[in-house]
Each structure stands twice: as C-alpha cells, then as structure tokens.
UniProtKB/TrEMBL annotation:
<protein>
    <submittedName>
        <fullName>PIG-L family deacetylase</fullName>
    </submittedName>
</protein>
<dbReference type="InterPro" id="IPR003737">
    <property type="entry name" value="GlcNAc_PI_deacetylase-related"/>
</dbReference>
<dbReference type="Pfam" id="PF02585">
    <property type="entry name" value="PIG-L"/>
</dbReference>
<keyword id="KW-0862">Zinc</keyword>
<dbReference type="InterPro" id="IPR024078">
    <property type="entry name" value="LmbE-like_dom_sf"/>
</dbReference>
C-alpha cells in the first residue's frame, strides 16, 4: 500500500490588522495557538480575546464560585504574556454551554464591537484527530463562532444589536480554527514558542490539578511536541496549524 504524505501547510494570510479570538474556556488558546498570537502582536497586529465562560467548572477541588475568579486572573495574566490586553468574558455556564441563538448573538455582538478581519476559534468537530471525544463546550462555541462571523454582518439578524449601537460588521475575511484535524495553514512558532510556554504556565492552578508532572516540563513537552509535529508539514519549522475558512 502506498503511504499518503499529508499536504504541506500554506502560510497564514498576513494582510490584516485586527483579530478576535473566541473560545469556550481559559487555557483553550494557550493549548491551541498562543505562539501564533505572540508572533502577530510582535508584528503590531491587534488581538482581543473573548471567552464564553470563566472556566469555573474546570477544577474538581475548587467550587465554581472560587474557581471562576482564579481562572479569570490566570487568563488575563496569560494573555498579557503574548501581548493581548483585551480579555472579555460572556458568562455562559462552564460545561453546559448551549449552541443556539443566544450564544450566536453574544459572539456576533463581540465581532461587531471589535470589528476583526480574522476570527480565531478552537476545534468545533466531535473529536480530536478522530480519536479523542471533544467537549460539548468546544463544539458549541466553535460552531457558533463560524455562524456568528456571518451573523455580525447582517443587520436583520439580531437587530437588537443595532438598536444597542452595534452596527453590522461584514469585514470578517477568515475564520481560523486551531486544533483542527484537517488544517490548511500554519504560522511559524519559532519566535513565539517560549512565550507560549510562559503563557500556558500562567494557568498554574488548572495545570497543577490536571497533572502530577512538573508544570514547566509538562507544558514545554506538550507545546514543543505539537509544534514539531506540525512543522513536518511546514518546512520543518516549529509551527501552529489552523483550518482556514474564507468568508
């Protein structure tokens, strides 16, 4: 049997100025694509974060009322490491996010507020690489982001947003999905990888509850391994991959 060689990944577009990353939980971006975000902010591009939840159900040993503020603080510190100062939370409930018009409306409102050309989210499909089952929160938010990128440009969908002063924004040119099992594009992670490691390490309360391994050893091993594997399809340079949906 002839072995099929995966296609090489194309470089991500770079003719844009503003991006908006929308994910379900604190740490989603740090596991998925913060090395790319570091390289973009280094180049003078603007990136804002919007999180559907505060990750309050993510640590078994902390009750949600205690966990939510901890994870919010960790997320803000984590974002700052890669040059992101705007971090917003939509306050949907962690673990039980529902795909539907309420979620689409909240994300469309965020798109109208920030007016990005590039929107980033996390894997919205049922599995990770066809092997591990994805969480309902990731699926719901990822699908809603893909839909809301279009909703934001149509004044007759969620007209109440216009009444609130959020004019339609039809300027989204791409939605980029991190963690996809069918990536099409990549960003060189060489310069951003160390900051990606430091960014994920800011989620220390979460990581220490997740693994008994030394946090830095765990984080560096995970992120560097993913970057090396992606780099096999990107000129053997460490890289972060995305599935790019033009709009």
């Amino acid at each position: 049997m002839t072995e099929v060689t995966p296609a090489q990944l194309a470089p991500m577009p770079d003719d844009w100025q503003r991006a908006l990353a929308v994910v379900a939980h604190p740490d989603d971006l740090e596991y998925g694509c913060s090395a790319a975000i570091a390289s973009w902010t280094d180049a003078g591009r603007e990136v804002a974060y919007v999180l559907a939840t505060r990750g309050e159900a993510g640590i078994d040993t902390l009750a949600p009322a205690e966990c939510g503020p901890v994870r919010e603080r960790e997320q803000r510190a984590s974002a700052a490491v890669v040059g992101v100062s705007t971090v917003e939370f939509l306050d949907h409930r962690d673990g039980v996010i529902e795909y539907g018009t309420a979620l689409r409306r909240d994300i469309a409102a965020a798109v109208r507020r920030h007016r990005p050309e590039l929107v980033i989210t996390l894997n919205h499909r049922d599995t990770w690489d066809g092997t591990f089952w994805n969480t309902p929160d990731h699926v719901a938010v990822g699908r809603a982001v893909l839909d809301a990128a279009g909703d934001a440009g149509n004044r007759w969908i969620f007209p109440e947003l216009t009444e609130q002063g959020l004019e339609p924004w039809d300027g989204v040119r791409w939605v980029a999905v991190a963690g996809s099992s069918t990536p099409t594009h990549a960003v060189d992670a060489t310069d951003g990888l160390d900051r990606a490691v430091r960014s994920l390490l800011e989620h220390r309360a979460y990581i220490e509850a997740l693994t008994d391994q030394d946090p830095e050893e765990y984080v560096r091993g995970f992120l560097a391994g993913e970057a090396r594997e992606t780099g096999k399809r990107f000129g053997d340079r460490p890289a972060v991959s995305f599935e790019l949906f033009p709009r």
